[in-house]
């Protein structure tokens, strides 16, 4: 964990909205593969990929962590990665996948490499069509 990085933290499971960035794509194995460089998105990108379904079910987006403006913030940390770590077993990999946001990632700052061994199993939007309607 790079404690010396003083940049504002980034949420690694953000909504698709203009100004956010694609950091990963869900693969056929149901796990997220990460881009070496993030790709900032605009409304055109969102419109294009939304034709195939909700973008947060197939991509992972990063955006600024808004801390107390987010329902997942408990006052000092993001509760999502804490709950994920209780529910899932980390992938056993000796080396971490490259990730474009690692030193600024909120989850990495909280849990270090363990977060990156859970992160590929996280799908931001798990609602089914009926829930989303
Ligand atoms: S938890 Fe790790 S792999 Fe996932 S977005 Fe953060 S730094 Fe990248």
Order of helices and strands: EEEHEHHHH
Task: From the alpha carbons, calculate the radius of gyration and give it in angstroms.
Answer: 14 Å
- Sheet bearing the most strands, described? 4 strands, antiparallel
Beta-strand residue percentage: 15-25%
In short:
With 133 residues, the protein is of the alpha+beta class. Helix content is 25%, strand content 20%.
Describe how the helices and strands are arranged:
Blueprint: E1 10-14, E2 21-26, E3 32-40, H1 43-50, E4 59-64, H2 79-87, H3 106-111, H4 113-118, H5 129-132
Antiparallel strand pairs: 1-4, 2-3, 2-4
The chain binds iron/sulfur cluster.
Describe this protein's structure.
By secondary structure, the chain is α+β, with helices and mostly antiparallel strands. It has one domain (10-123). The protein has five helices and four strands, in the order βββαβαααα. It has helices at residues 43-50, 79-87, 106-111, 113-118, 129-132, and strands at 10-14, 21-26, 32-40, 59-64. Strands 1-4-2-3 form a four-stranded antiparallel β-sheet, with no helix packed on it. A hairpin with a 5-residue loop joins β2 (21-26) and β3. The longest helix is centred in the middle third of the chain and has 9 residues, at 79-87. It is globular, with a radius of gyration of 14 Å. Bound molecules: iron/sulfur cluster. Iron/sulfur cluster binds next to α3 and α4. Iron/sulfur cluster is lined by residues 12, 23, 34, 99, 101-102, 105, 107-108, 115-116, 119.
């Amino acid at each position: 964990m790079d404690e010396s990085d003083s940049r504002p933290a980034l949420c690694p499971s953000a909504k698709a909205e203009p100004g956010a960035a694609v950091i990963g794509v869900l693969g056929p194995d149901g796990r997220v593969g990460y881009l070496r460089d993030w790709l900032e998105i605009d409304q055109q990108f969102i419109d294009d990929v939304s034709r195939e379904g909700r973008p947060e079910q197939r991509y992972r987006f990063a955006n600024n962590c808004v801390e107390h403006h987010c329902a997942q913030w408990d006052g000092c940390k993001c509760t999502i990665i804490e709950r994920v770590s209780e529910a899932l077993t980390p992938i056993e990999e000796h080396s971490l996948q490259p990730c474009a946001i690692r030193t600024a990632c909120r989850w990495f700052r909280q849990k270090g490499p363990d977060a990156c061994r859970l992160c590929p199993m996280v799908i931001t939007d798990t609602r089914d069509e009926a829930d989303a309607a």
